[in-house]
Each structure stands twice: as structure tokens, then as C-alpha cells.
Amino acid sequence: MKTTPQLAIVLTLIATFFWGSNFQVTKFALTSLPPWTASVERFFYAVICIFIFFVWKEGIHSNVLKQNWLAFIVLGAIGVAGFNGAFFVGLQSSNPVTAALIVATTPISANILEAIINRRLPGLMRVIGMAISLLGVALVITNGKLILGDVVIGDIIIFMGSLGWSIYTVGTRVFVKDATPLATTSWTMLFGAIILVFIAIFVESPITALSSGTFESHLACLYIGIGGSTVAYLFWNMGVAIRGAGKTAVFFNFVPMFSLIIQLMMGNIPSLPQMIGVVITIVGVLLGQGILSDVRFMNIDKNKN
Questions:
Q1: How far apart are CA 91 and CA 259, in angstroms?
Q2: pLDDT tens, 25-41?
Q3: Is the separation of the CB atoms in 56 and 186 below 8 Å?
Q4: Which of 39, 213, 259, 277 might form a disulfide with 20, Cβ 3.0–4.6 angstroms?
Q5: Which of 34, 12, 47, 71 lies closest to 229 in space, CA to CA?
Q6: Which residues belong to any copy of the EamA domain (predicted)?
Q7: Residue range 227-243: average pLDDT?
């Protein structure tokens, strides 16, 4: 099946859905597991799943690994171990609402980084779209107050993690050569998981923690390992490969949107400012992608005909 730009958008949205659900599911994982150990269990499942699919779909080509091993290790350390470790550790002290807003700034930093590397400023409409979507996210997760409380250490940790994800998003396109999205996902995830194991051994007692964890926590790790890691990382990298890092990163604003939808399904009704924020975010993303402009010009052409 050929991956078209339209299909890449759908795959990117699926990835952000899984990441949005991770905010809720992670709460179950952390009830009985320490953060680094939970991250290790998550990527234990993820690496097994992604490599089974990788070997079946493409097979392991040693030349790809030889050409990109350093990039895979660095990107795995930053985008897998760094981002997810920061996410788990940061949520121990950070408010989930504040954390979601911090993570939502990722598209901005990714576009800035890509612009610096390519020595090219992003288009004006993309910048406007990002600003509008970020405003919508702020309305949703602050319930229209647009005020953040005092910054805590968890906020700083999550912000550093979001910067790491920006580097990973841009780096998979800039520094990885002649590798498919599946190969990039598999190798970066493997090296990131190995790094997570060493960190967990150094700062925690993962064997003891895993043996004392509850069934719910292990089930939560299984979910975020397969859906929130394997599927999400693969679909995200496919979107980056087809549409570019800047255009793909804008969709990261949908992560808190999907988180809100899941809360709604669990019986938590959003307020009017939050619903307005949802609409503003979607409009901002569509504007940043040029979709609204395309629709407008299509209508103009039809009227001319």
C-alpha cells in the first residue's frame, strides 16, 4: 500500500490518539511502579512487537545499521529514553494539565529547529496556525483561564523532554540516511530501551519493583508499550518521512485533544471554554497545514467555472 500525504495525516492522527490516551493510562502504571521501571516495561513490549514486524516486513539490513548506528543511538537516547523518562518522572510532581500544555509546545520548537537546520523560515500561515492551535490547547487544558501556576521541577523535566522529542522528530529526517520509517523506529526504540534499562538499574530496583507491581499497572504498561509506543512511533515516523518534520509536528497539538475526548468518554464533561479550545485547535492545525487555504481556492476555482 502506497503511503500518500493524505494517509500520512491519518496515521499521524492515530499516533497522537495513542499518545493522548497515554496520559490517562500512565496513571494506572505509576500506581505501583516507579517511573523508570515502568518505562522499561513499556519498551520491553514495544521492542519485541516492533522487531517482529520489522523482520517480517523488511528484514534486517546490516548496511542500514552500519550507516546510521550513531544516529540511531543518539536519537534513541534523546527521543525514546529522554522523552519518555522525562514524561514518567515529570508527572510525579507536575500537574497533568500543566504537563499537557508544556508538551503541546513541541511543534513550535520542532519548526524552529528545522528552520535553523535548513536555514529557512517557516511560512507565515504555518506560524499563525501554530499560534492559533497552541491558544486552543491552552484554553482546553486550563479551562479558559490561560494561567499556569508556579513552575515545579516536574514542569522543567517535562519541558526538557518535549525539546528532546523535537530533536528526535527533526533528527529522524535530517540525520538518518537510506532507512525506512520502520527501520528508524525499530533501531531508535531498541537503543532507547537499552539506555532506559541502564538508567532504571542505576536509580531504581527494577526487578523488585516489577515483581511487586499490580496487574493493572502491568496491563497499563502493555497498552502503552504496544499502542502508545510501537504503533504511535511507527505511524509518527511515517508521517515525518512523507510530509516533513515541521508539518507533522503541528499535529502534536491533538495529543491533549484526544486526552480530553477520553476523559469525556469516562464521564467527565468538558466546560464551554474547553469545547471552544477544541474548535480553535482544529482550525489552527488545518490553517497551519494549508488545508483551509486549499479549500478556499478550490471554491474560488469552482465559482470561476
A1: 15
A2: 887 898 899 999 999 99
A3: no
A4: 259
A5: 47
A6: 7-141, 153-287
A7: 85
Residue type, 47: V
Contact 226, 5 (CB under 8 A): no
- According to DSSP, residue 228 is labeled I
Amino acid symbol at 173: R
Identify which of 13, 11, 7, 3 has the alpha carbon closest to the alpha carbon of residue 252: 13
**Residue 50 and residue 191 in contact, taking contact as beta carbons nearer than 8 Å:** no
Q: Identify the CA nearest to 159 among candidates 242, 70, 91.
A: 91
Q: What is the pLDDT of residue 295?
A: 47
What average pLDDT does the structure give for the chain?
82
| Domain edges within the chain | 5-107+153-257
Asked whether 80 and 43 are in contact (CB, 8 A), the reply is yes
> Is residue 220 within a helix (H) or strand (E), and if so which, with residue range?
helix 215-225
Q: What is the DSSP letter of 93?
A: T
Could you count the other beta carbons within 10 Å of the beta carbon of residue 74? 16
| DSSP category for residue 143 | T
> Which residue stretches of 143-290 are H helix?
153-174, 181-203, 206-212, 215-225, 232-243, 245-249, 254-265, 272-288
How long is the chain?
305
CB 79 within 8 A of CB 165: yes
Q: 154-188, pLDDT tens digit by residue?
A: 878 888 898 898 899 889 888 999 998 889 989 99
Q: CA-CA distance, 249 to 172, in Å (whole number)?
A: 12
Kindly tell me the sign of the dihedral angle through the C-alpha atoms of 168, 173, 177, 179: positive
Q: What pLDDT band is residue 104 in, cutting at 50, 70 and 90? A: confident
Closest CA to 195 of 87, 79, 91: 79
| Gap between the Cα atoms of 272 and 277, Å rounded | 9
